[in-house]
From TrEMBL:
Protein name: peptide-methionine (R)-S-oxide reductase
Regions annotated as coiled coil: none
Superkingdom, taxonomy of origin: Bacteria
GO MF entries: metal ion binding; peptide-methionine (R)-S-oxide reductase activity
PANTHER family (alphabetical): METHIONINE SULFOXIDE REDUCTASE (PTHR10173), METHIONINE-R-SULFOXIDE REDUCTASE B1 (PTHR10173:SF52)
InterPro entries reported in the protein's UniProt record: Met_Sox_Rdtase_MsrB, Met_Sox_Rdtase_MsrB_dom, Mss4-like_sf
Keyword vocabulary terms for this entry: Metal-binding, Oxidoreductase, Zinc
NCBIfam families: peptide-methionine (R)-S-oxide reductase MsrB
Amino acid sequence: MEPATGTNRAKVEKSEEQWRAELSAPEFAVLRKAATEPAFTGEYTDTKTTGLYECRACGAELFRSDTKFDSHCGWPSFYDPSDSDAVILREDTSLGMRRVEVLCATCDSHLGHVFEGEGYATPTDQRYCINSIALRLVPGEG
């Protein structure tokens, strides 16, 4: 396995069967099959806890609480990943629309989507709209 760029972590590659055994059915649906959890139901939608947000599938650091903001969209929103190499962005044309999917760079799990130019007063003018179930909050500095 080769290190994931910028993360100092080895790339995580597992079979579908291994992911199914390690993740709950809802986690598997979102992280491995690109489902979306229902709006306003995720555990991190409104949390203000200081800390780091890791990928629930592999533990890679993805976001920090100091980049989380209230977007009132129903999912946790961040204006920037913790490291430019923490996530992979790719075009998503599913559901008859053009979006940008956000994936964990370490394990290729689906996290959510990123949107630009929506008028949020953030330093990047981006909204990383991330499923709570794709994250694990580690309280502390962030």
